[in-house]
Amino acid sequence: MRLTLEDAMKNESYRQAAVELLFQLADDDFILAYRGSEWLGLAPHIEEDVAFSSISQDTMGHAAMFYQLLHDLGAGDPDELAHARPAADRKNAILLEKVNGPGTYLTEPHYDWAFAVVRNYFFAQAKKVKIESLKNSSYQPLAEAAVKVNMELYYHLLHWKTWFSQLVRAGGEAKTRMETAMVTVFEELEGLFSLGAKGNEFTQHNLIESEEALRTKWVQMMLPVFESLDLKLPEKFGMKSGNGRNGDHTSELQAALDTLGEVYKIDAAASW
Predict the structure, then answer these.
(1) Which domain covers residue 130, as residue numbers?
(2) Count of the separate structural domains present in the chain
(3) pTM score, two decimals?
(4) Phi, psi at residue 41, to the nearest 5°?
(5) What is the Cα–Cα distance from 168 to 91, expressed in whole angstroms?
(6) Among 16, 31, 15, 14, CA closest to 244
């Protein structure tokens, strides 16, 4: 059974669960889109500058879509939800707020292309699994949004899978840096699958599948890729820095939000 917006507003338990899930979806896309935008002009070549910028723009558009659904459910103005909420209120996975890697790409100590590729590929696959689940969500507006997101996500996933495979197959320093990046990403990867303290409510209301189901499907999709590249998936993933779904975050998130909200905070009522 699918519920409309009007149905959801009549059921407070259902509405709160939908709001919590939408914050996770929106905040994930919002912060990763920003991290992607930081690569503008720094990607390995000009074609990748264009491609990565397009992907980041799509991802920010997905965040905007989810923030609008939150607005419809009475959570607040979309721009305020995106720019004015404090870091402690954010629901994004910690993996996505991390600066762009510990490497030494160009002159910036926190720009590492291997980390960017691994993080974006693993996230895109996790997002694909979630979107497929959300297409069957009991909340009709969310299911409809998932169909729209899925059309663009196909290309995102193909892009990052290509980069991942080519760099691993290249061998030498490229493969070594990719393996180092994977270790770093796997230390926080479980945060992508966590649904937080209200995860059971999500599944009870048939909003999305369980954490275990999402994780299992991700592994099923990734295993053939890893085997083809002679790589091994770890048996368990970590949440080394805490669970962002429950409000745990790093100082890196606050720094990013300060930059993201700088113009908005000059005049929140301004029209652009």
Answers:
(1) 5-266
(2) 1
(3) 0.95
(4) 85, -5
(5) 32
(6) 31
